[in-house]
Amino acid sequence: MNRADATFLACALLLSGCAAAPAEEPRAEVSAPAHPEPQASAATSTSAAAPPAATPSASAAAPPRQSPYADVVGRTAPPTDFKLDGAIGEWGKLEVPPEKKGASAKPANVAVALTTSGVTIAGKIKGGKEGVTIRFDFGAGELPRLGVPVRGGGVAELNCETTWDGQPMDEAEKAACGQMLDQDADFVASWQSQFRRVWHVGPAGIRFNGAELPGAKSAFVVDGDNASFEVQVPIDALPLANESPVSSVNLLVMPTRSWTDPKEGEWKYASFEPAVAFGKRSAIRSMALQTWNANILEGAPAVGYKLGDDASWVIAERTSTGLSHVQRTQPLFTSKAKHKGLEIGVLYAATERIVCLKGDELRGMEFMHGELVSSVARPPGMHLFVRDQYTDETGAQSASWTVFLVNDEGEVASQDLERAVYGWRTVKPFQGPGMTTFGWDGTALGFDEAGTPGVRVRYQYHRDPGWYEMSIKGLP
Question: Residue 439 and residue 455: Cα distance in Å, rounded?
């Protein structure tokens, strides 16, 4: 890109707003309301009002400092004799398991129990008589770097010192680039905020963002300058997670008079053994995440999901220009066909894959590029038809069909069909009943010289040998 192009890009970005941030509610100003005098008895509250949306901070939190306020232990259920009264005796002796063999357990003063219905947190906090802030964080995945995709893969990372061709930016270009990075920092902060919740529990009950939290319950007992508490928060009020099943959470628990989003303090890691599975599709989601992490590519989107949601992902990815991020929802699994107790569909795991399931058990999986448009039962199993079309940087169009074969055991294999045309000026698909015939009609590159730019590429199914024969002919 020359200087003129770079200047045009910078100005265009400056005018267009550059980054697409997740939708958010107007920022709420949080003040420190006066609290009643602490009570010597338990204060139990059940909230019922609708909460405001969480307000993301404008920049990433500062690195946490050491804090003596709480050590945390994870559990997968409250005690069997649990009673929400603020008296935490039923939780027994709280200890953090040793990290190394032979080491001693570490005393804890906060316990967090994660279940499929929500979370229960109990503890005793020194100096907490006016209230306790709990920051509950599953951790957000790292977003792909901003930059321009380059041929052959990879990204030319964005910086505000030089243009894409290595020339120094002028002041206008630097200003536009800086604005772009500032807006993206807001996006990053908003994305990260969706994976955490900050609650305040005190004599007046439990609060989120300064307001009552529907469905949540709390009990708070003051003992001199200290306080013990128990809170229960329903699954709908928990943040996004990015692992399945959920094996851990980061907590920061500290005494505060009112709701605040603490930017300092020592995070504590609480693990759950066994990890907690949410929803009927937990095993499928776990499989998708394992595939995602094992085959991670430069520029792959960051991902999260709402606990208990079997249907979708929340995705954050680069836009097509590579110069901003955008958030969207994406189906986790789309069922396409059933065959002899098997379920066949498309799984999203950074890229789309055809999978075959028996219940939650994976029987087969293959990478897919394109759109799954049809499926037909053909002995000894199923045939799935994927159509792929795209236009390259020269303006030429590419078009291909792939047939995926699924046998009665659920194993999946792919077979690219023979291609006679590798570039089209214009092209459109056709398909007959039952997918016995299908193919492409269009004007093909390289056929002009023969005087037949109109071409039909046709695939015909033959029961013996059970495959598709290609033929090609000119069109008027």
Answer: 11
Residue 307 lies in a domain: no
Collapsing DSSP to helix, strand or coil, 190 comes out as: helix
pLDDT in tens, 425-465: 889 999 999 999 999 999 888 765 555 578 899 999 998 88
Predicted TM-score (pTM) of the model is: 0.77
User: What's the distance, Cα to Cα, between the start and end of the chain in Å?
Assistant: 43
What is the rounded distance in angstroms from the CA atom of residue 409 to the CA atom of residue 293? 27
What's the domain count of the chain? 3
DSSP state of 89: G
| Residue with tokens 């929803």, as numbered in its chain | 279
Q: Quick check: is 230 in a domain?
A: yes
Do 224 and 86 fall within a single domain? yes
- The verdict on residue 180 lying in a domain is yes
Contact call for residues 2 and 169 (beta carbons, < 8 A): no
Alpha-carbon gap, residue 325 to 21, rounded angstroms: 7
Which pairing describes strands 118-125 and 226-234: parallel, antiparallel, or unpaired?
A: antiparallel
* 301 vs 326: CA distance, rounded Å: 10
Tell me the pLDDT tens digit for each residue of 166-175: 789 999 989 9
Q: What is the 3-state secondary structure (H, E, C) of 94-147?
A: CEECCCCCCCCCEECCEEEEEECCEEEEEEEECCCCCCEEEEEECCCCCCCCCE
Specify whether the CB–CB gap between 57 and 196 falls below 8 A: no
Q: Is residue 308 part of a domain?
A: no
What is d(CA 75, CA 119) in angstroms, rounded to the nearest whole number? 10
Range of the domain at 157: 147-186
Q: What is the pLDDT of residues 304-330, one digit of tens each?
A: 999 989 999 999 999 988 889 999 999
